[in-house]
Structures
1.
Amino acid sequence: NAGVMQNPRHLVRRRGQEARLRCSPVKGHSHVYWYRQLPEEGLKFMVYLQKENIIDESGMPKERFSAEFPKEGPSILRIQQVVRGDSAAYFCASSPPGQGYGDTQYFGPGTRLTVL
Amino acid sequence: AQRVTQPEKLLSVFKGAPVELKCNYSYSGSPELFWYVQYSRQRLQLLLRHISRESIKGFTADLNKGETSFHLKKPFAQEEDSAMYYCAIDRGSTLGRLYFGRGTQLTVWP
């Protein structure tokens, strides 16, 4: 079990480009969470997804950001028209089927996005 | 709003000394509390959770609802304990989102 996989590990984009971050959860896990970590800050919740459903996107910026977790394939966090303020580490976590709350979340290694 | 406060950004102790990493939270419900740890060049991983009431790697954490604290303690620190420690809270609702503190970097000197 390779754990949560994220790719790419490092992503460099110029302002105005699109960034696509991928997350493959632990095999058998149906809950996926995305967090963002700005420099010197803790992880901030962005979105919580189950297969084909967005459960809670209250932490997502209203514009330019979107997330999906299709029936097949990895979860994708998409940032359109990136700006310098989007530069951060983006972490994905997964947890097994269940109630969601109280379950241990298993984290990926993160994707470090740098916007030039 | 939910908030997790870790007042110490950096904490240094010598090997064998006791260590306490502070965590205070603000939430009026019945949250679930966690400590996550990130060792150098490794991914964030769960250290312990309140509901399990267990000791992991010699660390314990007690939930004090009166003081809304969940401090992490170890009586005798080891060099391999050097890492970044994050306190996190789950509101205990049907939503599984975690709220994290800013983290405390613990350094244990030989």
2.
Amino acid sequence: GESVGLHLPTLSVQEGDNSIINCAYSNSASDYFIWYKQESGKGPQFIIDIRSNMDKRQGQRVTVLLNKTVKHLSLQIAATQPGDSAVYFCAENRASGTYKYIFGTGTRLKVLA
Amino acid sequence: NAGVTQTPKFQVLKTGQSMTLQCAQDMNHEYMSWYRQDPGMGLRLIHYSVGAGITDQGEVPNGYNVSRSTTEDFPLRLLSAAPSQTSVYFCASSRRRENTEAFFGQGTRLTVV
């Protein structure tokens, strides 16, 4: 069953297209950011991370962009596949050296066949 | 690798009952934490631990107790369950260094009636 509620923003993307999921963070002192993917009925799974001294980081089919000026983070997924359908969360570490990660509310990605 | 294991997966409690959610990890991670996930609110940190014998409060600690007697285990106790504690609970662990990903369990869906 669904582990995340009904009121999440939803992004619908055609299979094969690129997806861009956005996240605004609140603390300019946050120094580390992570994107997680959560499939229905499962726990969040790490996708990619980025430190505050970077603007961009690439992984396999995913790219994270960090704009510290406007406190904005984005996740780009290339050639979106049906298996990418999930809820995506960004998380920020607001205090360097601690384990207090603050999660965003999430975005649901729906991949249309 | 088992990773992070949570038990039970589902639980129904009556108001006022107590119970313990179990969490165990086999990765020798120092950091462990508990989150709750409610519709439209992302994951919120309840309690966390930076090592055996050391725990601290997160964003929403009221109504929950934790202890960390071993590196592997980090149980979450509800002393007197309330309907407001109906949620999905996730346990996570990570290595003891800055800026590192967390590994999550599969979650426990708790309903308090």
